[in-house]
Amino acid sequence: MVRQTQDHQLVRSLDLTDCPTGAVLDPLVPRSEAEQRCFGDWEAPLAPWGGFRVDSGLAVEMEEDRPALIFTDNFGGGSRERALVARSLEGRNGRIVAEIKAEAFEAPPHMDRHDCRAALIGVVFRMETSRAYYQLALEGRRRVVLYRRRDDEWFELAVRELSGSDMMSLQGYVALEVVLDDDGIRCRCEALGVDFFCTDTMFRAGKVGVRALGRARLRALSLWQTPAQQARDERRRARHAAARATRGASIPEPELRHTFDLAELGADPVLGGPIFQDFAQPGRYDLLVLGAESVRALTPEGQPLWEQPLKLQAQVVFSKGDVADPDGSTGRLIYGFTGLRESNARPGVRGEVQVQTVADEMVVLRGCDGAVVARAKLPELLPNMRYVDYAPTSGDLTGSGGFDIVLREWRQDKEGGGVHLWAYDRELSPLWRQEVTGAWYGHHHALQFCDVTGDGRDELLAGGTLFDAAGQILWVHDYDAEVQSIRGATHYDAVALGALADDPSVDPVAFLLAGSAGVYVVDGLTGRTRAIHRIGHAQGRFIGRVRTDLPGQQVLAVTRWGNYGILTLFSGHGDRLWSIQPDYIGQGSCPVSWPSGEAQLIWANTSGPVQAFYDGYGQLVKSLPTLGSLWGERMRREVVTRPVRIGKDPWDYLTLTVAGKLYAFGPEA
């Protein structure tokens, strides 16, 4: 019997007909009707809509009465990749055709690749994340290469060096064609005499599109599949949906339990919504409301606890331990800032206007009654300060039991990081002042207290430098010079330190998230590197227990600049377990305690469509459409998402702050 050959059918194509000329797909501009018509089935993963204040690097121009998509290179002398991929279409087999013109030979290093030199334009396929895919590309107008890329590893599956006779063809457009048939990959470019065939089993399925580094043009892009290939993809998606339903069957649906109106609470809209913490009574999570003229404490039911006529800025930190007031009540200390030395407005990373203020005083409040127990003037600061902040928690530098604090700086000339540190006891009496002399500390959780040596006093890890309780340097990361030399690194954005492995032969272990240098797993006693994971621009981290089959805790790292939204899970020992990319925005997805078992779940929460739970194996286990509907079509800057504890309930609430109201979802009863 002779099998009838099936013809390929058009599944997706880029149609630029009647598209207005000029810049397109700006991440912070609502889509026009014309743009939506042309690009509604496509997305730009390296400049995600609603995400960050970056140039999309994409424009439409007319060429001889025919529109073309231009991958520009107008980044102030810098360089950045641009990409366009099919939205919501992840296939295994089919035929992809792109008509491209490469215009650049060279491309300097950029945030995602610090070692590149040659321009690159071509078809990407089976893209699992924006750092894991195959690419058939023209490289530097010198050769045609089929790459398999995973992070910083670029493996050449096939290559053809171009000769002088090929240069004429490169003056115009050439058609790159990829035909996928299970493990077989065939790549053709008739104009350049290319016909590759290889087998590779690394990436099974994923998105398709075009990716470029250096100036280039795209005139046509299409994906074709036979009916059998389409049916096979549908069956694969159905299997995955059924498996997801089985995995998530025991996870309760989110149910709206609380709604807080920020105006009714008296919360200053600039400072954001209430802060939930057990500051007034151990184990009971109440609301701290920062108002325009006062700070108030309320129970979740709205019962007033206390009010202090003091305007605090948004940078508030709570002590790790509880203190007693004269009548025997216990609660945490609250460290804050008040007064005003200067303020300035500057554009935020999501396109919003941020009014940033440098306070005049530090202040400490007793959480059980709001009494001011200490206040002191801030030290003299440099003129390029954005604002000041405390380390994320208090620590034990003096034998106080954990009530000492370290002041850090945010500087414009350090990309939001800093070098100076000031340590104080609970009365805000100065203990020591130090300066980081290597790569500076950066954002978020870049400072952490931990008793590394086991002497009963905390050390302080500030980026890649560990200080003892007296402020003396114990070690500097042995790869500090490398961090300073890598474009997009130069500092440590976040750290995680402690007995994370639950193994005396390994602990204490430190994870140093160093921007575009990736993640360094370091011996917490010596600062010597045990492993390096080049996961992209490592920006944020969360510590949790999402895997009960592994000892200790796990560290979830999140990427930003260059390739956004990739989540990577590490074991406490420092092993990389998996990487996924729920959306192209990141950063915020985090472990949550939800009543479905001992293991925490990972709440993907950085855009409307992505609202979902993932398990410790990187598998989607439950979509959360109720939260997605509440988010709607808003940009990331318009919605605040965070897990909080409320009252004495033993689980995390999922909260979304939208249009002046905070909605708190708990597990359905």
Describe this protein's structure.
By secondary structure, the protein is mostly beta strands. β4 and β5 form a beta hairpin. It is globular and about 85 Å long.
Question: How are the secondary structure elements laid out?
Answer:
Blueprint: E1 9-13, E2 22-23, H1 33-39, E3 42-43, E4 58-63, E5 66-71, E6 81-86, E7 94-102, E8 120-129, E9 132-139, E10 143-150, E11 153-161, H2 167-170, E12 174-181, E13 184-189, E14 194-199, E15 207-213, E16 216-225, H3 227-247, E17 254-261, H4 262-265, E18 275-281, E19 284-290, E20 295-298, E21 304-308, E22 317-324, E23 330-338, E24 342-347, E25 353-358, E26 361-366, E27 372-377, E28 385-390, E29 405-411, E30 420-424, E31 430-435, E32 440-441, E33 447-450, E34 459-462, E35 465-467, E36 473-476, H5 480-485, E37 491-492, E38 494-498, E39 509-513, E40 519-523, E41 529-533, E42 538-544, E43 554-559, E44 567-571, E45 576-580, E46 590-592, E47 601-604, E48 612-614, E49 620-623, H6 625-631, E50 639-644, E51 653-658, E52 661-667
